[in-house]
Amino acid sequence: MITHAITRKPGPNFADGLTTAGLGRPDHGLIVQQHDAYVCALKNRGLFVIELDALDAYPDAYFVEDAAIVAPDVAVITIPGAPSRRGEQQSLEEILQAHRKIERIAYPGTVDGGDVLMVGNRFFIGVSARTNAEGARQLGEILARYGHTCTTVAVKHGLHLKSDVNYIGNNTLLTTFAFETTSEFQNFKKITLSKQESYAANSMLINDCLFVPEGYPDALSTLQRTGYDVIELDVSEVRKMDGGLTCMSLRY
Ligand code: GLY
Predict the structure, then answer these.
(1) What pLDDT, on the 0 to 100 scale, is given for residue 185?
(2) Residue closest to 128 by CA, chosen among 140, 108, 113
(3) Cα–Cα distance for residue pair 83/72, rounded to 1 Å
């Protein structure tokens, strides 16, 4: 049961963050509205939300998911893969030490939490442009010490593993074509989205509710048939910065 989330407000300079999306310059007023609606939706599902202020020096810092991994019994503070994001993790460590035992990734290992998919006791660690093999090795070793099983997965497409694959309960992954036949995921049922709606793979299960990005009608109707409550949220400005629903919170 998820009871807590940590979020961080997007700062006025959030548009200076990293992006490859090519969808135009995002609007600050609009992302603040979208972020507020996201926080509100988490609270409406009964979560206690710790809301952090923007970090002026780190325009991508509202993507809090990348700077830590929170397992049931440990939080692992990462070293983000992008040099411009290294340092975001410090203030999260201060918050998380009240909730979990803390472990840390050590350089030259790098890990972005967006590459880490938790399915119960099992973790899939994407090795990507951001999470390197050394970071994945260290994370796997730490999580194994706490009784978790880890499997690495090559991410050859998209920014992070969870840009393309997310667990939606009932042994089911919501995925894009890029991971439909990935051998590490062979024991899961899959819902594979069309190319046009692949962005909706970054949907987020909060207990018995699925948060889904607004604007993907086929994904929406498919997910409504799962029996979960489904909430659509507009994240157009987040998408312009290569982010999505999961990136904007740490959930535990
Ligand atoms: N803008 C999110 C990232 O590239 O890390």
Answers:
(1) 98
(2) 113
(3) 29
Q: With beta carbons less than 8 A apart as the criterion, state whether 175 and 165 touch.
A: yes
Provide CB contacts within 8 A for 181, sequence distance 6+: none
Residues noted as catalytic: 160, 247
Q: Does residue 115's CB lie within 6 angstroms of at least one atom of ligand 1?
A: no
Q: Does the beta carbon of 88 lie inside 6 Å of ligand 1?
A: no
Ligand 1 atom 4, closest CA: 18
Determine the distance separating the centroid of ligand 1 and the alpha carbon of 118, expressed in angstroms.
20
Q: Tell me which long-range contacts 40-43 makes (C-beta under 8 A, separation of at least 24).
A: 41/211, 41/231, 41/233, 42/5, 42/7, 42/206, 42/249
Environment class of 170 (CB within 10 Å of its CB; exposed 0-12, middle 13-18, buried 19+): exposed
80 Cβ inside 6 Å of ligand 1: no
Q: Where are the domains of the chain?
A: 4-251
CA of 60 to the centre of ligand 1 (A): 6
What pLDDT digit, counting tens, does each position of 59-71 carry? 999 999 999 999 9
Rounded Cα distance, 38 and 206, in Å: 12
Band (4; pLDDT cuts 50, 70, 90): very high
Spacing, Cα 77 to ligand 1 middle (Å): 17
Q: Which residues of 192-225 are buried (b: 16+ CB within 10 A; e: fewer)?
A: bbeeebbbbbbbbbbeebbbbbeebeebbebbee
Q: What gap in Å lies between CA 69 and CA 142, rounded to an integer? A: 11
Which class is 4-251 in CATH? alpha beta
- Tokens linked to 217: 């009608």
